Structure to design on (760 residues):
């Protein structure tokens, strides 16, 4: 269902419907290992998959632990299903257990529990997500089942089996992007078992969320799974209204030929909190640049909204050559829509304030006047991806080889719309005051005239191969190489040329470029025991000018940025294999960063004059310390982060400074203890040291203070029913969660949620 029906007519950009896509054999892979639920929590029915028919090519049945433990042992983010101990890079896996325990409903909430992640106003304003201080969202490094999920929309966790976070250069695996790492959303898939679960959560802000997970075995080697979500909330003036549905049918499970086909639809009709302007400290009282106000307060318009959605069709086929080799081919077609009407809150000029003075911490009061500017973003995106990956184990020349090779194709079409105010129509937004949040003021957003003003089309081809070679009983050597070809075409349709703006492009003009690049991946692993693995790795990555949305007049002639990552780390298992510890020392460098050219009269020109690096330590601990006590810890310490060179143009960070959105410390901790077979309690925290936005003027002192937010949980299980209470932000702290140079978005206020679930 489109969220902006008025703008969906696009004769120049043909699309296939999801049904047509399935008929055509287009879709994408469900690459996660199948995982039926266990009865570790003392409820429900223990389940494992039945023995496969005689034609099966694999020997062991599928099992699951993700819903029952915080610890993961395998990943699909490194291409194919691989043991984590064989990945020579830092990987954090957020399992379904952690997602359920902490009620992690969205991508941004889940990523707060992976260390080294920071947010630039998140998925709703000037979006970006940073990993190790490097762009993640804006460079397209978010994936679904290993295939790119590039559009900006509010992602929901209802269909996740788990969330995987790979740190460091990853272009050898995924192509363009991947400087800081990659995030992979692993979808739930059908299992050979009958099991169902219903969940209802209600809480503060009139929050109500209903989840359904229904799995039905339909034959000896076939199953159907349906996941659904509906969320409603007033949310203190920033409403939530979303629904999602994800049916998938899988057949030939465990046989030589295995197939999967399905749809995914998510629709969000939400409000939007665009943020609060930074409050300058006062000469008398000082201050921290944050408001002294209730974190629930909302100052936008009642007519503001963020409508986003996606519909995706996916199809996959697995051909198994035997127990140790398979070819997995998948196709995914996606349609994405976004219609954002937001109000940028700013302090009114001194003349409009009751004191007649500029606003700072000394003059700030309930009477302080706020203006509400307009920030609209209306866009659509269509994507088509084909990916085929071979993985197999071989013995050549007396040595064991674990080989992976593949090809992927991408076609992306993006269009942007301008929202103009027609002549004779006034959509001026009234001012408000600090003391009157959520005042109900609105304008008629439907009166804005939408015009398609620019498009961007991109095609990409990637070929890769890597080999994990056992060179000695305890030593493995990894080598990988990838070639990519990326082509993009930008068209300005209706935007009038502006002689005063060197970045403007004449109407009806077209610009574009193409790039071909190589990416490398090298790794050495030392595994003295089955419970220890240590690695040293090197990898490269690149970012084209069209990674995020499009080229423009300044970037179309600029070569790709390049990066490299060096990492020394390890993974150790203890407590009889129940507890895993991962650590890594890393040094990441972007050595020809794109900067505005300060030496030309054309301020729109970009040059590869920038360089920056970051180095630090990461630590993850996950699993059971004792049979009753579980722990998840993710911590990153980045003491070194520096801009090494820059053009010096406005908007670039000065040489020698610490880049914005690179806090020294980020941490997440979650721990639960089973008091009795029925009762389980838990608690945890998320923490971040002081940070600053990207793009501040060299003289700016704006800084977001560090914070610690504490959460609590209690769960009672009786038979197939479970009852759970979650309390978030125990101290009701007001802190800056998402940062932008002009404003910040506060973290969620103290929130209480109650969940009841039923397995049958």
């Amino acid at each position: 269902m489109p969220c902006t029906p008025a703008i969906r007519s696009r004769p120049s950009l043909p699309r296939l419907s999801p049904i047509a896509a399935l008929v055509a054999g287009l879709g994408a892979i469900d690459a996660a290992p199948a995982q039926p639920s266990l009865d570790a929590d003392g409820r429900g029915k223990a389940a494992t998959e039945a023995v496969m028919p005689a034609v099966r090519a694999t020997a062991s049945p599928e099992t699951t632990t993700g819903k029952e433990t915080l610890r993961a042992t395998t990943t699909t983010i490194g291409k194919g299903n691989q043991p984590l101990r064989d990945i020579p890079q830092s990987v954090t896996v957020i399992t379904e257990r952690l997602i359920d325990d902490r009620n992690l409903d969205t991508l941004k909430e889940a990523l707060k529990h992976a260390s080294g992640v920071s947010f630039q106003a998140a998925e709703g304003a000037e979006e970006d997500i940073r990993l190790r201080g490097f762009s993640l969202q804006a460079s397209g490094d978010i994936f679904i089942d290993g295939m790119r999920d590039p559009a900006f929309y509010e992602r929901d966790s209802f269909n996740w089996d788990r969330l995987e976070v790979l740190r460091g250069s990853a272009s050898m695996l995924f192509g363009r992007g991947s400087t800081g790492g990659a995030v992979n959303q692993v979808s739930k898939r059908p299992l050979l078992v009958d099991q169902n679960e219903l969940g209802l959560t209600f809480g503060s802000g009139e929050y109500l969320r209903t989840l359904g997970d229904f799995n039905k075995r339909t034959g000896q080697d076939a199953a159907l799974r349906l996941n659904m979500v509906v969320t409603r909330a007033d949310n203190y003036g920033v409403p939530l209204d979303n629904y999602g549905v994800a049916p998938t049918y899988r057949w030939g499970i465990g046989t030589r030929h295995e197939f999967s086909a399905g749809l995914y639809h998510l629709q969000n009709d939400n409000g939007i909190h665009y943020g609060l302007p930074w409050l300058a400290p006062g000469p008398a009282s000082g201050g921290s640049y944050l408001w002294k106000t209730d974190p629930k307060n909302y100052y936008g318009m009642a007519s503001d909204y963020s409508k986003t959605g996606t519909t995706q069709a996916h199809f996959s086929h697995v051909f198994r050559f035997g127990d140790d080799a398979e070819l997995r081919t998948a196709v995914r077609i996606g349609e994405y829509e976004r219609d954002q009407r937001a109000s940028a809150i700013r302090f009114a000029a001194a003349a409009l304030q009751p004191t007649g003075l500029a606003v700072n911490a000394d003059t700030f009061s309930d009477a302080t006047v706020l203006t509400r500017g307009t920030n609209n973003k209306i866009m659509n995106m269509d994507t088509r991806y084909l990916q085929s990956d071979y993985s197999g184990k071989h013995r050549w020349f007396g040595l064991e080889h674990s080989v992976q090779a593949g090809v992927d194709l991408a076609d992306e079409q993006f269009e942007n719309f301008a929202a103009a105010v027609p002549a004779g129509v006034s959509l001026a937004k009234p001012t408000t005051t600090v003391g009157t949040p959520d005042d109900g003021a609105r304008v008629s957003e439907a009166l804005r005239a939408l015009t398609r003003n620019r498009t961007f089309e991109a095609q990409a081809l990637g070929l890769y191969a890597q080999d994990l070679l056992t060179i000695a009983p305890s030593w493995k050597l990894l080598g990988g190489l990838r070639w990519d070809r990326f082509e993009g075409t930008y068209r300005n349709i209706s935007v009038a040329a502006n002689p005063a703006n060197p970045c403007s492009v004449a109407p009806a003009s077209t610009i574009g470029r193409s790039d071909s690049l190589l990416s490398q991946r090298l790794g050495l692993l030392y595994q003295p025991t089955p419970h220890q693995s240590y690695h040293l790795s090197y990898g490269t990555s690149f970012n084209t000018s069209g990674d995020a949305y499009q080229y423009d007049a300044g970037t179309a002639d600029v070569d790709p940025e390049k990066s490299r990552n060096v990492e020394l780390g390890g993974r150790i298992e203890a407590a009889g294999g129940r507890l895993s510890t991962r650590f890594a020392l890393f040094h990441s460098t972007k050595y020809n960063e794109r900067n505005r050219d300060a030496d030309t009269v054309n301020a729109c020109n970009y040059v590869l004059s920038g360089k920056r690096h970051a180095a630090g330590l990461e630590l993850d601990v996950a699993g059971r310390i004792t049979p009753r006590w579980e722990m998840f810890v993710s911590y990153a310490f980045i003491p070194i982060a520096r801009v090494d060179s820059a053009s010096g143009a406005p908007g670039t960070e000065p040489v020698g400074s610490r880049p914005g959105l690179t806090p020294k410390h980020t941490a997440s901790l979650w721990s639960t203890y089973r008091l009795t077979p029925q009762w389980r309690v838990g608690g945890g925290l998320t923490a971040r040291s002081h940070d600053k936005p990207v793009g501040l003027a060299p003289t700016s002192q704006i800084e977001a203070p560090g914070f610690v937010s504490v959460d609590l949980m209690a769960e009672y299980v009786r038979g197939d029913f479970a009852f759970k209470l979650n309390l978030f932000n125990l101290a009701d702290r007001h802190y800056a969660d998402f940062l932008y140079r002009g404003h910040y978005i506060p973290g969620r206020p103290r929130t209480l949620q109650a969940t009841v679930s039923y397995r049958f």
About this structure: Confidence is low (pLDDT under 50) at residues 1-40, 44-61, 122-126. The domain at 5-375+388-442+454-759 is CATH 2.40.170.20 (Maltoporin; Chain A). The two ends are 31 Å apart (CA to CA). Helices lie at 18-23, 96-101, 107-111, 171-174.
